Amino acid sequence: MNQELAPQRDECSVLSVLAVRDGDSWCAVSGSLVSLPVEAGAMSWLEWESRQPQTGRPRAEIRDDLGPEFDEEPFAGLRIIRKVILREEWRPRVEEIESGRLGSPDGSIAFSFEEFSATKLLAQDGQSDAHRVLDAVRRPIRGVSAALRSPELPHSEDFWLRGGPIKPSGQHTREELLGKESFHNWPSRLLGIRWLGTTEFPPPACFVIGKAQGGIWIADMLPDWENGQIEIVLAWEAEEVDPLSCSILLRSEREDASLLHRSWKVSDLPGEIAQGASRRDPRELAWNERTIGVKLPRGPRRTEFGVMLFGPDGALRDERPVGPRIEQIELSVGIMDAPDPFSASLIGDPENPPSEAVRDRQAAEARREEEQAREVAAGRRLTTTGDLRRYLHWRFSVRAGELLILDRYLLDLKSDEGLEGMFAFLAEFGRPVRALVSRGREAAKEMLADKEWLEVRRTSPKLFHDRLWITGETAVLVGTSINKFLEEGAVPATCAIDLPYGDGIAWREKFREWWRDAEPLG
Fold this sequence. Notes:
seven-stranded mixed β-sheet, 21% helix, globular
């Protein structure tokens, strides 16, 4: 088994298994072993769902819950298990599963399968059996899957009254329900498996061993029918990725043919980064309070659509596959034989399905909106029309880590007031700063003495010419020095340009190399 799927520091694995009795033993029908943050192992799947980033939809309500670990038999011959597997236990448990039998104090569980698949990315919202056993993880998963063979399932229902009499759903008396724990749709709530729980429909016959992919993921997709847009809500880990350097691909299709495939860089899209009442930078918020909602033109209405999220390195990070989605629900209530309903309501898209000509116009309008968004984004980066000072603060507010600056003349301001203004500006970033310069005034050296967050070294002016700001994997080429865009009055046209991912990594390595050989200033 691929060791990359094993939990690392501050991670554990969660084992979720649905099994049926086969003679005197148990046989696995469905389940997963997923490496996750330790905090996910300390709570149930239902509580984990309730802790997800707020996106505008109501969060899950926690009522009856079995907690993070349990081993129960909700219906005769049907067993459910959720167990936390620590880092040091992961390899032995995987070897047991691969051998076909997982040990348990209440009876071992047999796993009958041919072989595991190659390692793959199981993005969110897929419809395969492998996706269905991972419904509660709320993250894309990199892992392997195997189809399970199992005996016939015993009778079960979507309603489980724990500790009560075994009766069909809806036939329990008030006295029987009083004080008892009840679970509707218990496979999803307790095991995170997308299955109704009834014998009428089979559970996904699959077992997945994988690891939840952090960094950045799609937290939600919210339609805006009035404005013809889709809001893609992204959640991210600020220590690992810069969401503004990622890109989104919107795919709209009809009858398996492309109507609109458009790719946007997140920094070019209109969006709002969630901040607390204190207006702290997003990188300082907890992971489930930190979101950015970017709005894309919906394009042709009533078509199959999907979204793909790519990281700064171009790798696929998450996906909502192309497919038909419910876009309109009409509810009406009437009296038998009455010609018209006495009450009617419409949810979702208020308009009727468009004609093909209208769809063409909607696709063209989406392309025009894209061009307008790009023009607005360019304006933010141009100092003649925007504000480079505010732009740089916003551009690095989402990514944790130190700020590296390559600027030969950073400390070459002519006045002490200018130097103080420059230091105050850098302090606003609220992070450690290291800078490489070619020279600096004596006054600048003295002012550095009490600034523990800022370290400056001097290197040869022949090593570099461009001015670069680097945090994590993000490198921004800044067209002018700080002393220019902090000045009052008109500033010559210049801009800030995001470097390609590979160039940013190369410049970061160059900085490390030059820093090692540079002399401390002063």
